[in-house]
Amino acid sequence: MSTIMHDHDLEEALDGIEGDRRDISVINLGPQHPATHGVLRVVLTLAGEEVLKAEAVVGYLHTGIEKTAEYKTYQQALTLTDRMDYLAPLSNNLGYCLAVEKLLGITDQIPAKAQTMRVILAELQRIASHLVWLGSNALDLGAMSVFLYCFQDREMILDMFELLSGVRLMTSYITIGGLLADITPDFPQKLRGFLEYFPPRLAEYHGLLDNNELWLERTKNVGVMSQETAMQYAITGPAARACGIDWDLRRDLPYTGYEQYKFAVPVLQDGDVYARYAVRMAEIEQSRRIVEQALAVLPTGPWQVDDPKIVPPPKWQISASMESLIHHFKLYTAGFRPPVGEVFQRVESPRGEIGFYIVSDGSPRPYRMRVRGPSFANVQVLPMIMKGGMLADVISDIASMDFILGEVDR
């Protein structure tokens, strides 16, 4: 935390606060503080250790991803989505690719193998993201062992991503028209091994935290968000479901074949830090259940649409066919040209609904690309749930909302 502000800043922060309080101070939490989970600045007005006011200040990351995408071809812009929510890059890939495929009119042409693998990858990404959230949240509240265990298990998922794409984090593996490449022969076996290994580990996390008195003290009745507040601030995802909003795009507006899988949508009513923890823990189990079902029906066959004007021809064709070489050259130098139009596509990311709005003017580059990210709403509601709490609760509140500043400052 930084130093106390100047007198005029203090007067501005205290505007509207009644009474003569001599124990009031205004401090900065962040943006250079590990507990803010990124470059977030929270201006706190405190009476002793009680939070009277809180203001979330964003804008320190300045990525400019949306505008940059408008100067890239559609294929090139895909790699930018990985770097937006960098804990769920495959979810970003999926939302962006579904939007572009809708522009191209090829939604129904995506092969079954690619559709099934997209579900597997999105749910593995959800598990990996929730593990980072759980570990960092536990570390913030003093449970260091949980942090180490969570990152150990996340490594197994990143190993599988690397097996498929050669990259651990920014894979860009879900691409326009299908997948970047076919799955490796040993991927199903690796995935089965993880699915067998993981349930006892998840049970261990529950055993470490569910009835831990310190954990309950720091999370129960802390950072309470009402259903009305969640709806006013357009909160989605686990944070919304933790306060009684029964909404999940995978079930209610299914995409990529989610309607084929059986899974529950965890919903709680308390709306506090513990409820947000419990919902995400239940979601991890449901994601494992979806992956298990998808792996059981994983088909063979092509992993990309059969259209060389959208996806590059196989390398063996390029070396034997001049037409294939021309397709490859044109695709990577000029890109493809979707029809004039606009689309909006949203998917359920680990943090909530992420939506991609893309406008095509018939050129190889998006005329406009805008993203509706869940993290921005999750940050903006912080002052509401912090007010009236204690300074120590601020750390719990920030961690429980699970936002990524790369997505906020896009």
Describe the protein's architecture and organization.
The longest helix is centred in the first third of the chain and has 29 residues, at 112-140. β4 (174-175) and β5 (178-179) form a beta hairpin. The protein has helices at 7-13, 65-69, 74-82, 89-104, 112-140, 144-165, 187-209, 213-219, 227-232, 238-241, 249-252, 273-296, 315-318, 322-333, 374-380, 382-386, 391-401, 405-408, and strands spanning 24-29, 41-47, 50-57, 174-175, 178-179, 341-349, 352-360, 368-372. It has 410 residues and is mainly alpha-helical. It has a 3-stranded antiparallel sheet with strand order 1-2-3. Strands 6-7-8 form a 3-stranded antiparallel sheet. It has 18 helices and 8 strands.
Topology:
Elements: H1 7-13, E1 24-29, E2 41-47, E3 50-57, H2 65-69, H3 74-82, H4 89-104, H5 112-140, H6 144-165, E4 174-175, E5 178-179, H7 187-209, H8 213-219, H9 227-232, H10 238-241, H11 249-252, H12 273-296, H13 315-318, H14 322-333, E6 341-349, E7 352-360, E8 368-372, H15 374-380, H16 382-386, H17 391-401, H18 405-408
Antiparallel strand pairs: 1-2, 2-3, 4-5, 6-7, 7-8
